[in-house]
Amino acid sequence: MLPVDFRAVRRGAIRVLLGLCLSAPVVCSAQVARESSLVIRPGDLVRVTVWRKPELSGDFLVAADSTLKHPLYREVRVAGMSAAAAREKLVTYLKVLETSPQVSIEPLVRVSVGGEVRNPNLYSLAPETSIAQAVAQAGGATERGRLDRVRLLRGGRETVLDLTTATAEALNAPVASGDQIYVAKGSTVWREVILPSLQVVGGLAAIAGLFLR
């Protein structure tokens, strides 16, 4: 039986523990940063679910004054908060009505999807929805839609995205509140150049025929 080198085992265990201790804060900090970036803004919808209280549950618009558009929630200001912070505030508020309310909150960001999509509209989407999924939510591109030229208007800036490549950043990039997504229209030579030219030529020929009679 080979002798066990306890010092080597101890050194190995210390390395593993150090690795876990060093990597854990990175993972946790990234998760916290992600959650803190998902703040509720005026114009968003908030899905509130209060257990066994359907009259207090539903999808409520966040008004310009930061409150929820519900007769009972008019004093609850949630804009600028994360979902977790808004939930804690709502739980504290509802404790006036019951001892331990069971509440869940899901923010829904408002995103406009238009252009060459089958169902252009203003959508309320979960924050983890990607830009590509938002286009799919609108029915996808029409036959004339160009998924390689999708315009994203965010915070006063415009970006042109290409959704046709598997490595496109927009395939995984999440939507943000107030995003405007516009699928550009593709042009065809036959439909937009040759066909109108033939119509013009045909019209001129008909006019010429009238003078030659």
Structural description of this entry:
By secondary structure, the chain is of the alpha+beta class. Helix content is 35%, strand content 23%. The longest helix is centred in the N-terminal third of the chain and has 32 residues, at 6-37. It is elongated. Mean pLDDT is 79; it is low at 13-36.
Summarize it:
The chain is 35% helix and 23% strand.
Please trace the helix and strand order, writing H or E for each element.
HEEHEEHEEEH
Number of strands: 7
The major beta sheet can be summarized as: 7 strands, mixed
Percent of residues in helices: 25-40%
Specify Rg, calculated over alpha carbons: 28 Å
Sheet-strand content, in percent, reads 15-25%
Structural class: alpha+beta
Number of helices: 4
How confident is the prediction overall: mean pLDDT? Answer: 79
**Spans of 5+ residues with little confidence (pLDDT < 50)?**
13-36
Cα-to-Cα separation, first versus last residue: 116 Å
How would you summarize the topology of this molecule?
Blueprint: H1 6-37, E1 45-50, E2 58-61, H2 83-94, E3 103-115, E4 121-125, H3 131-137, E5 145-154, E6 157-161, E7 180-185, H4 189-212
Parallel strand pairs: 3-7
Antiparallel strand pairs: 1-2, 1-3, 3-4, 5-6, 5-7
Which labels suit this protein?
213 residues, alpha+beta, seven-stranded mixed beta sheet, 7 strands
